[in-house]
Design brief:
133 residues; alpha/beta; five-stranded mixed sheet
Length: 133
């Protein structure tokens, strides 16, 4: 109920709740997009090098984590099966770059064993992953 001596207030649109909703939606999309990134291989602590170059072609990732676990992409494998798995991936994905991601605490002998297996594949071009200093 309005008193007769009250002045008429002009109608207003309050946009503060609308701004809150827009920011909530924006935060939702930012956070959800973080989960859409694809990570190949296992998280390893890579050694650093000054001459690091980025590979722009599609690649097959072979990872050796600090416990010495060998994986191709995200699938654990044994050293004896490595050559066969990588050959099959090269045929199906039409890629020739095989990136070796070995943790810096992995024994040198294990990395050499993996390199030896991969060098037996004639169409495979090998690359070793490293972080830029």
């Amino acid at each position: 109920m309005r008193l007769p001596d009250e002045p008429d207030r002009p109608p207003q649109i309050n946009i503060v709740p609308m701004i809150d909703v827009i920011f909530a939606i924006l935060v939702y999309f930012i956070v959800s997009s973080l989960f859409l990134t694809r990570s190949e291989g296992l998280p390893v602590n890579l050694p650093q090098a000054e001459t690091v170059q980025l590979q722009k072609t599609k690649q097959i990732t072979v990872s050796l984590d600090r416990e010495g676990t060998l994986t191709v992409g995200n699938q654990p494998t044994q050293l004896a099966q490595l050559k066969t798995k990588v050959e099959n991936l090269i045929k199906t994905e039409q890629t020739t770059v095989v990136v070796i991601k070995a943790d810096k605490v992995v024994e040198h002998g294990q990395v050499v064993d993996v390199l030896d297996q991969l060098r037996q594949i004639p169409q495979a071009k090998l690359a070793i992953a490293a972080q830029k200093e």
